Amino acid sequence: MDNMNDDVTYPLDISSLNRYFIQLISCGDDYQFQELIKTFLPILIRSIELQTDDFRKKVVEVFIHINKRVKTRPEIQIPVQSLLEIFTTSIQCSPFASNFSIMYIKMGFMRLKPDHQVELVPLLFQSLTNRSISHQELLMGLIVYALQHIKIIPNMNENIIKYGLTDQPIIRNLFLNFLLNVILLPYKFEETKPRNTTRTTQQRSYVEPSQAPIDEVLFSTMDDAPSKEVEVFKQPYPCMSEQLYNRITEAIQTDDLNQVEKLKVAILKFLNGNIYSENDIIFHFVLATADSRYSVVLAAEHDIKRLTVAVDWNSMQHVQSLFEFFLGTSKTIKQQNEELIRNPSNTRIRLKLYPYLLKSRTASTIFPHAIQVLYESLFGNSTNIRIKYFSLQFAQNMIQNAELNSLVGVSKLILHAFEKILNTETNKTHDASRLRSLTYVLIGKLSYRVPKLFSDDIRLTQQFFEALKTEDNECCLNIQEALTLLAYAQKDASVSSKHMLQQLLTQQVMPSSTAESQSIDYPQCRQAAVSYVMNVFPSNDCTSRFILLTACSDKNEDIRSLARRNLFTEQDNNYPDFQLLLKLILSNINKNSSIDRQTLIYHPQTYQEMIYYLHRCLIRQSFNGEKTTPLWKYEEQLLYVYDIAKQNTTIWYNYIQFLLDFVLIIHDCLSTYFLFEAIIIGYHLNDNKLIELFNDNLSSFRQLCLFSTRDDTRRYSSLLYAYVLSKNPTNLLAIDELIKIIQNINQRFEQREASILALGYICSYLDKSNKYLNYGKNLLLKIFFDNQNEYILSLLISIGQLARMNCFNNDDELNIKNFIEKIQIKIKTINETNRIKEKAIQTLGFLAVCYRELSQNIIDILTQSLVETKQIELQLNI
């Protein structure tokens, strides 16, 4: 038998083949059989190429016999290395010979010892060149099987030479892609829904972003997609097709799931040896972190951070790969080969891909793929709460990073997705609330970049305000932030849209008076509405100012201060028209005209702010915004206000009535002064209707004067009452009443003090021939000389007013001298308050002007007081 083995020569003929076939059949044990095929099998395969068909038929019989015996004898070794050498070095190897070579290489490689398998790996790499895909995959499967026995020492040049395939880039990419497919192998079969079966078998080519038809690509992810011919079939493998799965499992020659796990770990350890660049192997590790076996995930995460740092995620190569694995090739590749099809990824893989999508600025600017990712993540089958949250972050990157022209083209699709989230994620869970919160903010950011899309969309604004009533506090903060951004987009809204917006904001600030609305408080709605008014409408818009004025009486302090801060800003000289704003305020009063006059239509604080703001509008309108004098110096501006009132006396009548309604109920100092100011102008207008109004309300002025509890209000109301009385000579009985009140020591303090002030002002307005003038002067001086200290301030004001109006004559010289002496004592004494001393100094100044012969004495007293006093306030008054 040994001699016959030595005589095996190449090539074999039919007679030699028959002879050796008999020897194979007659082998007594496995060792003889193994030794025979060790020499015979390589020569036999080589001889196939040179012989006839009859010879090949005979060879098939030989192979059948060999296969039967080898398959039943696992210990029999096949000459794998010799077959590989033939397979690798043969230039013209027929398909017949190649198939049988691969068959025995595949059969024999698994029987080799691990060390021998490792030694054959370089030879397997060499045999990959110029082979069919099926043969390449089978050979690469053998390499993968041997990887678990290779001990790689990182950063060794020897490894790169043996396994790096540096001189064969095509084979290297083919091998790395095969390793990636092995890593993607699932451990179980999953059922998926029907998908489009339309395929093209043309050459694979990537779609340029600018040339991709957005509508066609997006319809596949939307519920209202056009119907196409579909066929229900199974797609159980994420990022793989069923055909690819079958090829890979056949190549690695195992159905054992534990063995598949070991192969994946071996691949990762092999790739971790720095044989290939980070850009070539990054997706092997990224996808391995999504594996369902712990050992694979652990091996991948060991080096994933080091690899991701070295990778540029803005590279179009990586961006395209991210989209391809996430969406599948049907949405990312326009024309694809059937063998290269990849299904979309599952939930586990998408969770691992998203961090790198978010890192990539470029990925968020590639349309339509970025929109496809958004829709698939939000409304696709393979999604969950975390993926939805990631997708909203990705949408935020799109809004921030995309060029404006590109963003405008897809802004409606993005907004449609956001609105759908708000309409579908309605659960009250924490996760759903987080999704809605981020969605609200993203709508605001989108509106800031694409304002034209939102300028006339009041529907969204209304939806946001309604959401403020139902969402939790954290979500409400995000809605308020979104409304601030949305307000920027609606600054340029049309007139009709702004009118609708004003109605909406008015409803938020002034809710209906129903029992239900009164029992539920929504301060966040009111605050958002006030902020919205500030940001959208100009400062000269009447309706928006009316809304802010209404908010000045809000129960929430933050809302009140926010509204006031925007209304009364000194930097802004652009105020609404006085007449238009007054008409708007009065129109709301007329709607509630059935309410009694003793009940204010508006809240007292709102009423007060309306009066202040109306007066400021009046002053600003008088000077057309050119005057910078402080608004407290009204006297010098009355002539300009008079010109405005003269244009329309009806408006002025309504203005006075508006002031009067408030002042009679709320005794406010400044409002009383504004009323006095308006009445002075009203008398100068010589309008009968106005004069009739003043006379009809004389009793109201008296009540305001005598029953005001605040000192400053009492002073202005006394001045007002005195001025009206002085204009009507028939009101002598009213003066007599004031005198009686002053003389009655049992009268209330407020009434006596108000009467003293009113009498002083009235006497200053009377003619010098009037009997009440002398009587009033003497009465006031007598009370002053009687040292009634509680009334000293009002007496000083009244006597000072008489002196200012030059009401004293030579008959009063003795009283005036005594008065000056007492005032000098009061200025020097430490028992008097600064306020009384200031009024005393002011009165001396009036007397110095009125009595020129006493002016030198008064100046000496003031000069001496200036030296003696050490209080800066009094020195400034002197």
Automatic annotation (TrEMBL):
Keywords, in A-Z order: Repeat
Annotated GO CC locations: cytoplasm; nucleus
Residues covered by the ECM29 ARM-like repeats domain: 654-771
Entry annotated with the keyword Translocase: no
Gene Ontology biological-process annotations: ERAD pathway; proteasome assembly
GO MF annotations in UniProt: molecular adaptor activity
Stretches assigned to the Proteasome component Ecm29 N-terminal domain: 18-551
Protein name: Uncharacterized protein
Lineage: Eukaryota, Metazoa, Spiralia, Gnathifera, Rotifera
